[in-house]
Amino acid sequence: ALIFALLCLSTNARTQDLHVRILDYNTAVDNVLKIPFFESDSFPDIAAKINAHWQQQYFDEPFDTISYREVLKEITPTEDQYMGLNLLEIDTLLLSDRYLYFRVFQEYLGAYPHYSEDDHWYDLQTGEPIRPSSLFQDSSYFDFLEVHWLPECFESLKEAQECGQGEATIKGYCYHRCFSFDQFFPRGDSLQ
After folding, report:
1. Cα diameter, the chain
2. 130 Cβ partners below 8 Å, 6+ apart?
3. What is the pLDDT of residues 136-188, one digit of tens each?
4. Would you state the pLDDT for residue 37?
């Protein structure tokens, strides 16, 4: 996965002081989890809030750079029991004056493998999670959807529907993707 680590475009102190440490964890079935851990010397409370929030969505308990191995040991596959969190890594990391965005890709093994990609947005002033729609004024949000989201979504849904009606479902999954913020970068208080 390509990581755009610490893309600092301003002299904002919070932006320049926030950094990510990738904690590697080797599972018993020869996979490596790449766990992001955000740190800041000047704003440790902001980094701690971000870590606590995103960790809560994937793990039973929060962890730090020392305790993470014990937490992960409990939820990853073993040679005896091939179920649990098998893969987790940051796919994209973007940092602006005020916002942190990252996407987490994960694979969980159970009766069937489960894959997910989750987008995470945080306000660097507070450490609180934010919804991307809150970055738009009411009217501009719908303009943005009309231009950038709906055309891609309609085409993707059409392709997934055609895939689901053919032999492709025997060979693999049919996917659709209705949104992508990859080409947009948060600047200041808005997306550009």
Report:
1. 56
2. 99, 121, 122, 123
3. 666 666 666 666 666 667 677 777 777 666 554 444 555 556 655 555 555 55
4. 92
Q: Which two tokens stand for residue 100?
A: 């942190």
- E strands, the chain, in order: 19-26, 32-39, 84-95, 99-109, 114-123, 186-187, 190-191
For 56, 76, 153, 162, the CA distances from 176, given in Å and listed in that order, are 27, 29, 7, 11
CA-closest candidate to residue 91, choices 75, 103, 73:
103
Task: Tell me the C-alpha distance between 149 and 39, whole Å.
Answer: 33
122: its two tokens: 């945080």
- Do 22 and 34 meet the contact criterion of CB atoms below 8 Å apart? yes
Q: Is 61 exposed, middle or buried (0-12, 13-18, 19+ CB in 10 A)?
A: exposed
Check residue 133 and report its DSSP letter.
Answer: G
**CA 144 from centre of chain:** 22
Do the beta carbons of residue 57 and residue 118 sit within 8 Å?
yes
Q: Are 23 and 66 in contact (CB under 8 A)?
A: no
